[in-house]
Amino acid sequence: MEINWNTSLYALIGNPINNSLSPKIHNFILEELKLNSLYMAFNIQEQDLEQAIEGFKAMGVKGFNITIPFKKEIIKYLDSISPEAEIIGAINTVKNQNGKLVGYNTDGLGFLKTFKDNNVDLAHKNILIIGAGGAAYGIACTLANENIESISIANRSVENSLILKEKIESINSNIDVLLDDLNLQKINKNIIDIIINTTSIGMSPEEDKCPIVLDGFKGEIVVYDIIYKPLKTKLLMEAENKGYKTFNGLSMLINQAILAESIWNEIDDEKNKKIFKEIEGIWKFM
Ligand code: NAP
């Protein structure tokens, strides 16, 4: 692309950002959309966040993504936030609407899209979420609005599980929320339909690790590991060996980026599907 006076800027802010794949994915999408636009990543110090956002406003930056550790802190610098971001209480995407900054969260919906695209029905399902960190939060808050039966949270630290349980119950008091640690001695494994790993256990370079022992579950379950490096974690290998349906973290990663792009620029369904397939195709060989 040719960068000129009229090139629009999109950005990512966070700290650290050196492993982020967002510039690659977003610049690919912008190119596909044939937009005179560029996506850059900025490593921001905590004390400089407000100034950075003021700078973006002054320069007319069209939109930006926010990653760790600013997803919550950013809220106080925005003019308004979307309903789903309000529920999750964290922002990963901001749109500059004529000088007003509007916050969104595409993490949970990006995750959910994997189920929708693969015709996995969530109604009345019993779900086990492993982990209670930032990603688990977005996913659990989004699932709480689906017509599911129960969420079991298995996490190392009880405090984080408790905060997540309270949050889910505040969104939907009809969902049973059960807590356990990673040994899974308390929950009834027999009722679980879907397991979602949101911990970093199994992520590169510790690829030989698995967050739970995958024994004692039903014969037919879905296992979704949101890790995307490696694409096939030890948990997913074990799930495949047992004949379970599996999903890796790539679709969530691509979908949350496409959703962010469609907040900034219009992308119709057909284009959306085409871009998803192209990025997925490139990725599989990386
Ligand atoms: P986070 O907020 O730091 O949460 C990490 C979670 O993993 C917590 O539940 C933590 O337990 C648990 N954990 C970490 N190390 C552990 C260990 N050694 N033993 C037991 N538990 C451990 O991180 P996050 O932002 O949620 O990200 C988590 C993972 O999701 C990462 O691998 C990330 O790459 C992936 N992710 C993928 C996508 C995607 O688009 N596919 C999006 C976001 C994140 P405690 O609560 O006890 O600390």
Low-confidence stretches: none
Tell me the distance between the termini.
23 Å
Helix content: 25-40%
Bound molecules: NADP nicotinamide-adenine-dinucleotide phosphate
By helix and strand content, what is the structural category?
Answer: alpha/beta
Count of β-strands: 12
Strand order of the largest sheet: 2-1-3-5-6-4
| Largest sheet properties | 6 strands, mixed
Lay out the secondary structure.
Blueprint: E1 8-14, H1 22-32, E2 37-43, H2 49-59, E3 63-66, E4 80-81, H3 83-88, E5 93-97, E6 100-104, H4 107-117, E7 126-130, H5 134-143, E8 150-154, H6 158-171, E9 176-180, E10 194-197, E11 222-225, H7 234-241, E12 245-247, H8 250-264, H9 269-284
Parallel strand pairs: 1-2, 1-3, 4-6, 7-8, 7-10, 8-9, 10-11, 11-12
Antiparallel strand pairs: 3-5, 5-6
The structure holds NADP nicotinamide-adenine-dinucleotide phosphate.
NADP nicotinamide-adenine-dinucleotide phosphate binds next to α5 and α8.
Characterize the structure shown.
The chain is α/β, with parallel strands linked by helices. It contains nine helices and twelve strands. Helix 5 packs parallel to helix 6. The protein is globular, with a radius of gyration of 19 Å. 40% of the residues are buried. NADP nicotinamide-adenine-dinucleotide phosphate (NAP) binds next to helix 5 and helix 8.
